[in-house]
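Predict structure. Chain length: 99.
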Amino acid sequence: MLENRFRVATRGYSEEFERWTDALNAANALKPQCKSLLQDVRIFYGEELIWVYSRSHTYPQYIGAGVYDRLVRLFVQEAREEQEASEQAESGQAESGQA
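Prediction complete.
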């Protein structure tokens, strides 16, 4: 799932992201801009539509069989990688402070 990029799109905005977490954060930040029932925020994975938010639904819609499960696993993986990078940076700073 990592060879493609995520693209967040809505009227007047489109941006690509490498990480699912970044794409989801960007999409959630755009939710308040959906003023009409016809406007929505979408996330694509490559060319595949995988997530849609619109005012006509209470919650965002995950599109496709197994997409939600794949994205949850990806979210957890990205969080672990971010935590490991943070811990490595902290231990590197501690070691350089002791030298």
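Summary: The mean pLDDT is 89.
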